[in-house]
Specification:
15 helices, 46% helix, two-stranded antiparallel ribbon, 373 residues, alpha/beta, 2 domains
Length: 373
């Protein structure tokens, strides 16, 4: 499809769906899922385990073991589907709710818990995982991702004849972030330099307590047209459609065709964070309406209808989920407490003499208290 077709308000891709809420496959004129039912079973496994990680973390916060937790309940298809489209040279830039993406990218969920327990500074190996650090300042990560994409462009990792030599950046943010200046500045730079970046907006309908209707008078994906690049809206609870659309957008970026805005239309079934009470600002009937579109339930229905999964498969996944949950509960309370003396080792690769002297003085001071005991 041409840029003009993709950015037209009347384009056929207004709502891309390949699996409806009842678990039936549906056709779309421009996008299709090319994986197998076994691939979808793997996606379902990741969605179920991501939801269990989220549930356990929420419970740990309620028990006082975490200071805060931003739930992702209901957004599993948007996260897992997009993560499964990521290629070997792509860079993934999250906000603070992408626990399902982190799981798919190989980040140990215990490392996620350390961030919210206050025992670490999101220090998983982002270079090895290609999953960068959580961003807690709303929208700033979009600028970081565009910068990464422009660097990849200038390093010759875009537009090569061999697709294996190409990469792109994908950045996650919510509908609320689109009201921030940083996001709009990121759009401008990405468009101006044809940066190889995919803007992945999880429109979960609520920016804390503000509904999307107050944030934007038009569908969010149509904002891309004003910046001169494609925008598409996908059913964010349909893992097939999300993966197909993200795969297409990343391929465009890697080939040197510039940025794309994906609006994954989904719903936050939980609270914005565990310090939030959504019953204060949204109706129970709205939540019930979206529960009927549960991304895990619809994929389970489809895979059972094809015989790709059965009771034994589901039981084995439940066992795996329980083992993971137990590891999180035990591991959370066993996370090592940070030591003040460690800060000197986290600033420079080669510590300057002045700071080395400060470190040694502090260590001697701290040890003097141990000797006094």
């Amino acid at each position: 499809m041409s840029l003009e077709e993709l950015t037209s308000p009347t384009a056929r891709q207004d709502f891309i769906q390949l699996l409806d809420a009842e678990g039936n496959r549906v056709e779309h004129p421009d996008f299709r899922y090319t994986g197998t039912d076994d691939d979808l079973a793997a996606s379902l496994r990741d969605m179920v385990l991501a939801r269990r990680i989220d549930a356990e973390a929420t419970a740990l916060q309620r028990k006082g073991e975490l200071g805060l937790w931003p739930p992702m309940l209901g957004q599993e298809a948007a996260q897992v589907g997009s993560a499964h489209a990521v290629g070997p040279l792509d860079e993934v830039v999250p906000s603070y709710r992408e626990h399902g993406v982190a799981w798919c990218m190989g980040v140990d969920p215990l490392e996620l818990l350390g961030t919210f327990r206050g025992t670490s500074m999101v220090d998983w190996d982002s270079r090895a995982k290609r999953f960068h650090l959580y961003s807690f300042v709303i929208g700033t990560q979009t600028l970081h991702a565009v910068g990464m994409a422009m660097a990849m462009q200038r390093d010759g990792l875009v537009g090569n004849d061999d697709p294996a030599d190409n990469g792109a950046a994908i950045v996650y943010f919510g509908d609320g972030a689109t009201s921030q200046g940083d996001v709009n500045e990121a759009f401008i730079f990405a468009a101006s330099y044809a940066a190889p970046v995919v803007f992945f907006c999880q429109n979960n309908q609520w920016a804390i307590s503000e509904p999307i209707a107050l944030q934007s008078r038009i569908p969010l994906y149509r904002r891309a047209a004003g910046f001169g690049f494609p925008g598409v809206r996908v059913d964010g609870n349909d893992v097939l459609a999300v993966q197909a659309v993200t795969h297409w957008a990343l391929e465009r970026a890697r080939a040197g065709e510039g940025p794309t805005l994906i609006e994954a239309y989904t719903y936050r079934m939980g609270a914005h964070t565990t310090s939030d009470d959504p019953t204060k600002y949204r109706r129970a009937s709205e939540l019930e309406e979206w529960k009927a579109k549960d991304p895990i339930a619809r994929l389970t229905t489809y895979l059972r209808s094809t015989g790709a999964i059965d009771d034994a498969w589901s039981a084995a996944l439940q066992d795996e989920s329980d083992i993971l949950a137990q590891r999180l509960r035990a591991g959370c309370t066993s996370l090592a407490e940070p030591q003040l003396a460690d800060q000197w080792d986290r600033v420079y690769a080669d510590l300057p003499p002045g700071l080395a002297s400060q470190r040694d003085q502090y260590r001697a001071y701290a040890e003097s208290f141990e000797e006094a005991r």
